[in-house]
C-alpha cells in the first residue's frame, strides 16, 4: 500500500511538472508601436487632411459595410476611415529577416 501511494505521488508530481512548462513570447515595448506612432493621422482627420499631410496612399481599398469603412495603405502604416474621417491608424508589421 505504501509503495502504491509513493508511486501515485511520483506520477502526479511528474504530470504537474509537465503542465507547468510553457513558452513565453516577449515583444520589447519599443517594437510594439514604433517611434512613428505620433506622426500618423489622428482620429477625426478627414480624407483631404490625410492626403495633405501624408500624400497619396500606395493603395486605397474600397469601402466595406455600413457605416462604410475604408482603408488606405501607406509604406509603413494603414489608415482606417469611417465615412470620410479617420477612426484609427496602425503600423504595418514588417518581419525581420532571419
TrEMBL record:
Annotated protein name in UniProt: Phosphodiesterase
Taxonomic source organism: marine sediment metagenome
Amino acid at each position: 500500500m505504501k509503495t502504491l501511494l509513493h508511486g501515485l505521488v511520483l506520477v502526479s508530481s511528474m504530470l504537474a511538472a509537465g503542465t507547468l512548462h510553457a513558452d513565453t513570447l516577449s515583444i520589447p515595448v519599443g517594437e510594439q508601436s514604433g517611434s512613428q506612432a505620433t506622426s500618423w493621422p489622428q482620429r477625426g482627420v478627414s480624407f483631404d487632411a490625410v492626403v495633405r499631410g501624408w500624400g497619396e496612399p500606395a493603395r486605397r481599398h474600397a469601402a466595406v459595410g455600413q457605416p462604410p469603412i475604408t482603408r488606405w495603405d501607406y509604406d509603413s502604416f494603414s489608415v482606417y476611415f469611417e465615412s470620410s474621417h479617420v477612426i484609427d491608424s496602425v503600423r504595418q508589421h514588417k518581419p525581420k529577416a532571419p
